[in-house]
Design goal:
The protein is of the alpha/beta class. 46% of the residues lie in helices and 13% in strands. The longest helix has 17 residues.
């Protein structure tokens, strides 16, 4: 590989590599590396925050290296018996497989499926005995694990830490041993787990893996890392029009960061963008449109990007109603329990037609004035405005025509 290629791989969109010099030497030697990417199938969706690492994996894949995708099906079935973690529910194998299928459909929008090795954790942990687990736990001390930031903070605050939680870094580390990983990819929040894997490999006679960490992408709220639970995310499987609209809501001061982490726009051009913004010669809106086109083209194609832009300009900038509005069939009787005749509970309606995920979200949007019926803003969930054929608008980009199926 050329030094310029190595520099690009190891610098752009990278937070930290342990150990960077070793990693560069492996690339110069031309060795085909095994690149580990694991995922927890407790939840199936991928957003642009995940895409930062996936893009980097794809760049290595294009240069002949082997991606090994590990489905953490075994740990997902265990869940978190302490009940302290909302992110690790106990799942059945059927739930794990369904989530994994959805995840992989989205994963392979960025990474080449034909060149990816898929491994399931249960291949090795399904054969584990109590003796194997005891041997594994004997290799580390409690003090080492309490050095991890989140464990340390909870320990000092005298908050409970389940023994099961201490096992997760060990099990993730053993995954690296099982597949003989050369490099493990992920966000900076995974640093402790990656280092445990590196140490365990050394103990087991393997060359320690490189820890390749990418930055955590800040979400559309401009303050917290992108997360579905915070509602500040842009999903890779969302419709192009929705992705486009969400990108346009990204704060101006994050646009260059998104360009760097989520696109292949050359560094020289990014430098021009930076200078243009600094001197106020470039409209941030123009850059956001370019950013949205770049992202949608990667996830879909140029045609989808152009259509999404036209949709945004028509419905948001010119405030026109879209030419094509999806129809949602709804039983008005079933969506209007416990309200006077002729009235509808819009918090229930919005959930029933899949425009929001919960009634609390619907109520919040209504209070914010983000819900309209036939162009009229509503300020209370109980309304008489909804009729058969009415057009509901949520925010600037989501529309639906409601058809009464009673």
């Amino acid at each position: 590989m050329l030094e310029s290629e190595i520099s690009s791989l190891l610098k752009r969109g990278v937070a930290e590599i342990i150990v960077e010099d070793e990693m560069a030497q492996l690339l110069r030697a031309g060795k085909k590396l095994r690149l580990k990417e694991g995922f927890d199938p407790s939840f199936p969706d991928i957003h642009l925050g995940h895409m930062v690492a996936l893009r980097k994996l794809h760049q290595f894949q294009e240069r002949g290296h082997q991606i090994v995708l590990i489905v953490a099906d075994w740990t997902a079935q265990i869940g978190d018996p302490s009940g302290m973690s909302v992110t690790r529910p106990m799942l059945t194998m059927e739930q794990v497989k369904a989530n994994a299928e959805t995840y992989m459909q989205q994963f392979f929008k960025v990474v080449d499926k034909e060149k990816t090795e898929i491994r399931w954790q249960s291949e090795w942990f399904g054969k584990f005995t109590l003796s194997d687990i005891i041997q594994l736990t004997s290799k580390f001390t409690v003090a080492q694990f309490l050095a991890r930031d989140d464990f340390n903070a909870r320990y000092k605050a005298e908050k409970p830490i389940a023994l099961t939680e201490l096992l997760y870094p060990l099990l993730q580390a053993y995954d690296s041993v099982a597949i003989e990983a050369d490099v493990e990819f992920g966000g900076t929040d995974q640093k402790f787990n990656f280092l445990v894997g590196r140490e365990l490999q050394s103990m087991m006679g393997q060359r320690p893996q490189q820890c390749f960490m990418v930055p955590l992408l800040v979400g559309t709220d401009g303050s917290h890392k992108m997360s579905k639970s915070l509602g500040n995310y842009i999903g890779v499987a969302e419709p192009p029009e929705q992705i486009y609209g969400k990108v346009m809501s990204v704060p101006d001061d994050l646009v260059l960061n998104y360009f760097e982490l989520l696109t292949d726009v050359p560094d020289d051009e990014l430098g021009e963008f930076r200078e243009g913004l600094k001197q106020q010669k470039v409209n941030p809106m123009k850059l956001k449109k370019r950013l949205a086109r770049e992202i949608i083209t990667q996830l879909y194609d140029p045609k989808a990007a152009a259509e999404a832009e036209a949709h945004f300009e028509r419905t948001v900038q010119r405030k026109e109603t879209p030419d094509e509005i999806p129809e949602r069939h709804l039983s008005f009787k079933k969506s209007a329990p416990a309200v006077p005749l002729g009235q509808m509970d819009m918090s229930r309606v919005l959930v029933d037609i899949d425009m929001v995920e919960s009634r609390s979200e619907a109520n919040r949007l209504i209070r914010q004035g983000a819900v309209k019926i036939d162009g009229k803003q509503i300020d209370h969930p109980i309304t008489r405005d909804l009729k058969d054929g009415s057009i509901i608008q949520v925010g600037k980009r989501r529309f639906a025509r409601v058809i009464n199926k009673d």
